[in-house]
Fold this sequence. Notes:
By secondary structure, the chain is mainly β. It contains no helices and eleven strands. The chain has a domain at 39-108: Immunoglobulin-like, CATH 2.60.40.
Amino acid sequence: IGLLISITLIIISIFSACVIYRWAEIEVQKEVPENNAPVADAGVDQTVHVGDVVYFNGTGYDSDGIIVLEEWDYDGDGIYDWNSTLKMASTHIYDVVGNYTATFRTSQS
C-alpha cells in the first residue's frame, strides 16, 4: 500500500527572464499489520423441551484486537436476535417443536 505525494521544490535559480523549477515525487508507504479474524465458539449442542429456557454462553477470542460485540441468531434466519457489548450469557425460549441452528457471531475492534 503506497501513497504518492508530489512535492514542489522551491525555486532553485532565477536567470533574467526564466525561472527553473524542479519537481520531485516521494512515495510514502505505511505497513499495515495483518488483521486476524476473531474466533467464535457457540458451545455444545443442546436438546431441550418446548418452553424450556435455553442458556447460550458463547465465547469469543481475538489474537490481535478486542471483542467488542457478541450476537446470537436463535433460529438461523440470518437476523441476529440478541447482541451485547459485554461478555454475558443469553437466554431464549423455543415455543415450537423443531430443529434450530443458533448462530453466534463476534466482532472485533
